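User: tokens in, sequence out, please.
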């Protein structure tokens, strides 16, 4: 079985000439469709880089995806090691005490790490190179934007004593795959959980497909929200693996997400209730392919991909917090990781909750 992903795994190896040619054409394309101007992010959302270094970032509150041209600068993510990144930001940036960190992404060329942060009520994009932390100036940056067509209303409501605003889930994850942007999140209407496919450069011909799953922990079909996902090719078949709260792992055929009808995924694993998957990377080690998935309450899972494309979906309820389906193991040493992005074939840059704060460091993939 051959698995390739364009989101979290290292870019496929091309010849030097082809790689340089592709980078040149991609950079020229980015310069042609991105225009200078201010970007004001209203909220922290998911982000990722394209191979040419264009940053794609979601703003759930604004129900908008941005593409930004990030200036290249020398960096070394492996050299960035902060025991308490929040404290380091406070010290280096002279920021106040109200700092909330968001997602991270590693620039594919410079290897600098980028992190979003809410600093004193304002969303900032921070570049981390070695031990230096700097803010990316969004007042005049080459960019483009794409607003979602039918996001949930920006309206707060209460349920079971908790307050919710479904607009905050309009964009839950995104990835660049096969030259297109894939976005998960909620929409208004009868099929709230959806997967969007957008052309890059942005255009009007986006495709929105409602999705549903069999939720084994609940024993029923649901239109649950995708929390994190990986697009990949398994034996040449474009596939999307999605994680949901409580924690079904579901396989979708990307070719069927064409907007014609709601698509029911195949639940290949139930990985435990009372938990939300936070992030995923796919990597190869010792001749096998694995998925590393961080979680809110069930640690770090190393999931085997053996037979994942052919596995029949779960159809019976999995009760009592049990697990079923695709094999996995828990990596205790990586507990507390809330965000990660692949640095190279054997390493990832992570944000990890520790006794000293939220640490930024590089780990070896297990």
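Assistant: Sequence out:
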């Amino acid at each position: 079985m051959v698995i390739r992903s364009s989101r979290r795994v290292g870019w496929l190896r091309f010849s030097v000439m082809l790689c340089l040619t592709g980078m040149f054409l991609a950079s020229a394309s980015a310069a042609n469709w991105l225009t200078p101007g201010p970007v004001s992010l209203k909220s922290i959302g998911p982000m990722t880089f394209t191979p040419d270094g264009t940053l794609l970032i979601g703003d759930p509150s604004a129900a908008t995806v941005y593409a930004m041209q990030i200036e290249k600068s020398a960096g070394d993510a492996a050299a960035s090691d902060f025991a308490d990144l929040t404290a380091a930001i406070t010290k280096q940036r002279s920021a106040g005490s109200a700092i909330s960190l968001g997602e991270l992404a590693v620039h594919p060329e410079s290897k600098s790490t980028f992190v979003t942060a809410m600093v004193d009520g304002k969303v900032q994009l921070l570049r981390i190179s070695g031990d230096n932390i700097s803010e990316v100036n969004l007042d005049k940056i080459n960019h483009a934007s794409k607003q979602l067509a039918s996001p949930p209303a920006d309206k707060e409501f209460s349920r079971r004593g908790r307050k919710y605003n479904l607009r905050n889930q309009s964009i839950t994850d995104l990835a660049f795959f096969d030259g297109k942007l894939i976005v998960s999140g909620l929409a208004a209407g009868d099929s709230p959980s959806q997967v969007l496919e957008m052309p890059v450069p942005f255009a009007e011909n986006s495709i929105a497909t409602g999705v549903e799953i069999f939720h084994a922990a609940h024993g029923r079909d649901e239109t649950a929200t995708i929390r994190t996902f990986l697009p990949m090719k398994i034996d040449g078949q474009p596939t999307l693996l999605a994680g949901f709260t409580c924690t079904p792992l579901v396989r979708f055929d990307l070719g069927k997400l064409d907007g014609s009808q709601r698509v029911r995924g195949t639940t290949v694993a139930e990985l435990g209730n009372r938990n939300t998957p936070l992030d995923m990377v796919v990597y190869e080690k010792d001749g096998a392919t694995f998925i590393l998935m961080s979680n809110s309450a069930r640690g770090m899972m190393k999931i085997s991909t053996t037979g994942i494309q052919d596995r029949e979906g779960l159809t019976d309820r999995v009760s009592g917090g049990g697990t079923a389906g695709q094999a996995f193991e828990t990596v205790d040493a990586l507990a507390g990781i809330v965000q990660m992005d692949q640095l190279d074939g054997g390493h990832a840059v992570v944000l990890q909750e520790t006794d000293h704060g939220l640490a930024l460091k590089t780990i070896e993939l297990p």
